[in-house]
Amino acid sequence: MVNRTPTITMVRHRNDVSRRLPHRAIPGLAVIPLILATELLGQTAAPRPEPDSFVNQQRAIQRRMADEFDAQMAEVQRVTFDWGGWYSLHVFLFDDGVESSRTFRRHDLRLWTRASIDDGTHQFYFRARTSFLDFNAGDSYDGNDDDVEGPKLERGVYRFDLARALNTYQGRDAEYNLVANVGRDLVVFGTGLALSTPIDHVSMTASFRDFELTALAGRTIGSSPDIDLTRPIDRTRRIFYGAELNYRGLERHRPFTYVLWQRDRNSDRPVPIGQQFDYDSFYYGLGSSGEVVDRLRYGVELVYESGRGSNYGILAGRNRIQAFGTRAELEYLFPGEHRPRAS
């Protein structure tokens, strides 16, 4: 009668972490002690050396068992885990026209962790920030010379890659792909003229041959400050919807076009008498980025903006938004270990 005791095995290979072994690996593990026991009995009970054929047979079995075990472990080791962090210090010396000078120091501590499952099919990334704000005595605007911000979640996103899933689970390569992102992350449309900010969002990027289409739905982070200082709010609430199309069939250039809607969801309380705040906008952009020659990068973008907004008072009604914007940039990457650049 054999008494079998359940066993839970944890395996670590570099950064790879295995949760459990497949069931088919358990019988293979049980054979190894039997082989060792047979060799020990042979040493104590048999006075004469074993035949070469028997020894070679046992060695062949051991090699086969080792190969099968390594292959099974390769299938299990599909979870990678990384973590880290960094500290940064910024010092600002400036004259704002009110005080003769102000001195401000900002200390930032960031910690991050990342996990990848099944060869990158599922990816998780989280990053938190804690900041210490330090003014010289009497230099702060609100009388609070020292303050702490955080800890705050700067990034927290889950990513699913369909092409990697097909390759990992079915062993085939597809000429198309679908990548889904859910969470808080930096979102950039085009070169970033109309939208380049971290938001809580859901995005889907479908690619087929040389075309890549991204659909976006998101909202600003609740702790984001509002850029309009005339409003009676200190945090912004805005919703974004958009789509961007990229063409990747050119070797050095990536042309793009996009549409983007922004909806104002701020609740202005209290509202000044006779005043109304509202700003709902639409953006259409096109442009390209890439390389002119080796080490010389470029980016160019043209944006048309329309929509409706209120800024003259309730009686004036909503005003039409009509504006154009453009961005052009050249950046040269110098050779060398420290990779300096000029733009």
Describe this structure as you would to a colleague.
The chain is an alpha+beta fold. It has three helices and 15 strands. It has helices spanning 25-45, 52-76, 162-170, and strands at 11-13, 16-18, 79-94, 102-117, 122-135, 146-161, 176-188, 196-208, 211-220, 238-247, 253-264, 278-293, 296-310, 319-333, 341-342. The strands form two sheets. The chain has a 13-stranded antiparallel sheet. It has a two-stranded antiparallel sheet with strand order 1-2. A hairpin with a 7-residue loop joins strand 7 (176-188) and strand 8. Helix 1 (25-45) runs antiparallel to helix 2. The longest helix has 25 residues, at 52-76. It is extended and about 100 Å long. It starts with 10 loop residues before the first strand and ends with a strand. 8% of the residues are buried. The model is unreliable at 1-45 (pLDDT under 50).
Task: Please mark out the parts with pLDDT under 50 across 5 or more consecutive residues, or reply none.
Answer: 1-45
Radius of gyration: 31 Å
Number of strands: 15
Task: Please describe the biggest sheet, giving its number of strands, its sense, and whether it closes into a barrel.
Answer: 13 strands, antiparallel
**Helices and strands: which structural class?**
alpha+beta
- The overall average pLDDT, rounded, is 81
Q: Report how far the terminal alpha carbons are from each other.
A: 78 Å
Main sheet: which strands, in order across? 3-4-5-6-7-8-9-10-11-12-13-14-15
* Basic shape: extended
Number of helices in the DSSP assignment: 3
